[in-house]
Specification:
alpha/beta; seven-stranded mixed β-sheet; 24% strand; globular
């Protein structure tokens, strides 16, 4: 929790499972779509489908290679269950814009932040934004634990719920 300046950190056997459980926990019940970038981790859509939801792809910002809230806004519908932001390895996504969109629409926001683990935005550590942020500790990642994953959040109730959810 010190690295990301958050109250809670929940660990998992893999980043895949951390993301799956977080999606299942945070997504709005009764809704079916997850807005996510089309240029992202190759298994991301698989994880969304395994969570029982439908990927709803959008473009990325051509200059930052990250998620752009204005592009996400165009995809929000009555069926939107979750906004899934993903930070690219070369830059950060539009965190401020996505958080504003989440507040405005009431659609929860999580980030896959594995490629930005040591980043900051406005002096605030990656891992401390949105409802939760997910990280992988695979051998090829910045935070290397050979395998494993974790979720950071300031919401203690969410952390407790994530701990109880089964795959």
């Amino acid at each position: 929790t010190a690295m990301h300046n958050t109250k809670c950190c929940v660990t998992f056997c893999s980043g895949f499972m951390a993301l799956l459980i977080t999606i299942r926990t945070v997504a709005l019940p009764g809704k079916s779509e997850v807005i996510m970038p089309s240029a992202t981790y190759r298994r991301m859509a698989d994880i969304v489908r395994w969570a029982g939801l439908t990927p709803c792809f959008t473009d990325i910002d051509e200059h930052t290679m990250g998620v752009d809230a204005t592009l996400y806004r165009k995809r929000v519908t009555e069926e939107t269950a979750l906004l899934l932001g993903v930070h690219p390895i070369v830059n950060m996504s539009d965190v401020t814009g996505l958080e504003a969109l989440s507040r405005e629409t009431g659609v929860p926001l999580i980030f896959d932040s594995v490629e930005a683990a040591f980043g900051t935005i406005g002096g605030k550590a990656i891992g401390s934004f949105a409802q939760a942020e997910v990280f992988s500790m695979h051998a090829s990642k910045f935070v290397n634990g050979f395998e494993g994953g974790y979720v950071t959040t300031d919401d203690e109730d969410l952390a407790a719920t994530i701990k109880r959810v089964e795959a």
